[in-house]
């Protein structure tokens, strides 16, 4: 009875574990309206937005991991709880120094949130039905009595991988943009990336105008053979006064060709059968 028990136990634990591991997470892959999106090439990315509040500046840093939970940094007190997928940390800056301790740490969307808080996916299209990207809504826990959520619009941009970041001085493109944080509860971000473009099945375009290597090869081979035959015939005609089939160079060989091929094939078949017979299989 023991094997049966352990088998059903492992089966039970598998059944119990399965829904937990697939719970509510956005793993970078999603399907909406029959279109598949794959953002697994993207990595954790941040965008910082500044609000001047003379004499201080409030800097809010939004960080998102498109494939799972954000990494937990050891010995760092200001961070979102383990399992968070989109996190905002804001700090007050005086002069060029941040205050000790964060103003706010707000998680939007966690891979450990219950099933009914799963992220929502909606495809975005223009009037001509062309795919603009994917709208992913993360539903977070509450913060200050307000249920938080983050809308991340993955927008198709063939020019950007989505990993682009500004340099240390804050110059350069950031593929991730902060749009708004409405009513202290809905954060909206835009992420421009080629991975949000609808994949068009790549049919190799027929190379018009230019001939491929193979075409050239055939044409040149044909010309060489033709030149050989013409020159050879002319040579035989002049030198030996040949006529008809005898005009062709190597006319003997050409005439024998069918027999040569047949002979070659027969030898090949014999060799094949011979070695096969030695293989050690005996008929029953
Ligand atoms: C924003 O937060 C992320 C994750 O904690 C960090 O790696 C990044 O350096 C921060 N960016 C700025 C400009 O502080
Ligand atoms: C994205 O989805 C949210 C709901 O999840 C919706 O309120 C919002 O209008 C959508 N935005 C676009 C551009 O489709």
TrEMBL record:
Pfam families: ATG27. InterPro entries: Autophagy-rel_prot_27 (IPR018939), Man6P_isomerase_rcpt-bd_dom_sf (IPR009011), MRH_dom (IPR044865). Residues 1-24 form the signal peptide. It is a single-pass type I membrane protein; Single-pass membrane protein. Belongs to the ATG27 family. Keywords: Autophagy, Cytoplasmic vesicle, Disulfide bond, Golgi apparatus, Membrane, Mitochondrion, Protein transport, Signal, Transmembrane, Transmembrane helix, Transport. PANTHER family: AUTOPHAGY-RELATED PROTEIN 27, MANNOSE-6-PHOSPHATE RECEPTOR FAMILY MEMBER. Residues 22-199 form the MRH domain. One of its GO terms (biological process) is autophagy. The chain crosses the membrane at residues 211-231. One of its GO terms (cellular component) is Golgi membrane. It is found in: Cytoplasmic vesicle membrane; Golgi apparatus membrane; Mitochondrion membrane; Preautophagosomal structure membrane. It comes from the Eukaryota. This is Autophagy-related protein 27.
